[in-house]
Amino acid sequence: MPPRSWPAFFGRLLKTGITKDVVTYSSLFKCLCDMKRTEEALNVLLHKMPDDLPNVISYSVILKSFCDSGRSQLVLDLLRMMAEKGSGHSPSVVSYSMVIDGFFKEGEISKACDLFHEMIQHGVVPTVVTYNSIIDARCKARAMDKAEVVLRSMVHNGVQPDAVTYNCLIQGYSTLGQLKEVARLLKVMRSQGVLPDVVTYNSLMTCLCKNGRLKEAVVFFYSMAVNGQKPDVISYSVLLHGYAKEGSLIDMIDLCERMARDGVVPNLHCFNILISAYAKYGRMDVAMLFFEDMLKKGLNPNEFIYLTVISAFCKMGRMDDALEKFNEMIDRGVPLGIKIYICMIEGYLNHGDSVKAEEFITKMKSRGIRHRPRKGNC
């Protein structure tokens, strides 16, 4: 039976008087939530489900749906109602962790922390998932001192940090460019028997590349396989970007070949990097080969890629090629932003075709865009 038929079927089932169990109701809730009809699911739980039936799983399905849609305050009210009912209704650590994470994602840090302490007061013991949620939020807010306090509290309470815990911290310090702290955490991680995973390596390589230490990033990349980790598309994109910054075009080709051998399919971000790098150095022949390969793989170029290609053609005076790509954008339904128009206008001006430049100025004005182009800006 298709999932969309579930609500109607369940409605008929209710009228038959046949006994329904918690599994049946939970399946209905999951179906309604997947269909973005969470309010209906909550209504069934509160008003149509026998009081003795709902358990923590029934509530959790609805809690997660509301959290995913950014309605954590409503979830908090539901959570507290569960706690008041007690017995089999009492929220579990999974329920609390879900709502705490929801508050953090909505930027409600104080509410998340208050709920964490409330959970402990109710005798619910935090798990590694709960602590990871708090550490991740602190790291994303660049409050590394507070993240370290949570880590110490976690260990003190007998909860063993896992790879996710250390990845959050490493990512946080990497963003701040604090390489010594990254190295320290990596050492602690290994001393605790927690093996770095692909996320760890990607964070390390990103940090090294941002700090001009590409050679070390390359060493980490090639050590992944030795340590039982297969580089993913993010690993490749990080290294490609590092090579692009240094203009190492040959290394980029070698890495692409390795990527193909490893069966890793490049995403739009990878093609962005490759096309931009070759366009920057005037190698439009290679850039367009990557462009065509991207299309063959079923990826749709975005405005940024078209701007990169059109800008390169304009600088080279290949205005017919630039116009072809401009028209292709229209055919593909890619949004035409002001930067694209300015690029075309200044390209024509820089190469002595004021008539075409005026045509594009008229087109731009017809779209309600106002801007005075300057020579040599594209």
Automatic annotation (TrEMBL):
Originating organism: Triticum aestivum
PANTHER family linked: PENTATRICOPEPTIDE REPEAT-CONTAINING PROTEIN 3, MITOCHONDRIAL
Taxon lineage: Eukaryota, Viridiplantae, Streptophyta, Embryophyta, Tracheophyta
Entries under Gene3D superfamilies matching the protein: Tetratricopeptide repeat domain
InterPro entries per record: PPR_rpt (IPR002885), TPR-like_helical_dom_sf (IPR011990)
Signal peptide, first to last residue: none
TM helices/strands, residue ranges: none
PPR repeats: 21-52, 55-89, 92-126, 127-161, 162-196, 197-231, 232-266, 267-301, 302-336, 337-371
Name used for this protein in its record: Pentacotripeptide-repeat region of PRORP domain-containing protein
Pfam families per the UniProt record, alphabetical: PPR, PPR_1, PPR_2, PPR_3
Keyword line: Repeat, Transit peptide
Family, similarity comment: Belongs to the PPR family. P subfamily.
